[in-house]
Every structure is written in structure tokens, then in C-alpha cells.
Amino acid sequence: MTKLHERVRNQIENQIKVYAIKDNRGRKELVLNERDWVWLHLSSRGDDPFQVLERINSNAYRLDLLEEYGVSNTFNLTDLVPFAR
Questions:
Q1: I need a surface site. Which of 16, 25, 52, 54 has the fewest CB within 10 A?
Q2: Predicted TM-score of the model (pTM)
């Protein structure tokens, strides 16, 4: 790789790091545990909170959701809000 390519690559990598720092400023990481209760954004239904059954990864959780809802019981973290008792 030529020196010009190396400099451009380093500049791009550094700029990506700067953007990531700016985008994540003030963001708090939310980690839910099994048996935690959460509100779920399912349109405007006035349902009770649901219990977390399993953490699939840092963004996906499986909830104790009745089959009558007709949707998968796996949800993205952005659809969940911790329930404060």
C-alpha cells in the first residue's frame, strides 16, 4: 500500500472514531436481565408489562408474550422500556 493510501485510510478510521464518540455521547447502555419487567411498544394497546424470558444478545430479548398477539416474542431493545414498580 502506498503512503498516500495509508494516510487516507488512517484519516478515515480516525474520523469514524470521532463520529462514533459524538453519536454515543450521553447514551446509556441498557441491559435487561431475565425476570425483569418491561413495557413493550405494540401500537397503542394498553397492556400490562411483560417479563423478560431470555437475553438473546445486546439488542434482542425474548418476552413472555401470549400467542394471541400474533407476533414473534423476540424484540429489539429499542421497543422495550424498563418497568419501574
A1: 25
A2: 0.65
Question: Which class for 40: exposed (0-12), middle (13-18), buried (19 or more C-beta within 10 A)?
Answer: buried
Q: Is 80 exposed, middle or buried (0-12, 13-18, 19+ CB in 10 A)?
A: buried
Domain boundaries, the chain: 37-82
Interatomic CA distance for residues 59 and 79, integer angstroms:
10
Give pLDDT, residue 45: 65
End-to-end CA distance of the chain: 59
Query: Which run of H or of E encompasses 53?
Result: strand 50-55
Is residue 38 within 8 Å of residue 82, measured between CB atoms?
Answer: yes
pLDDT at 58: 85
| 3-state secondary structure at position 9 | helix
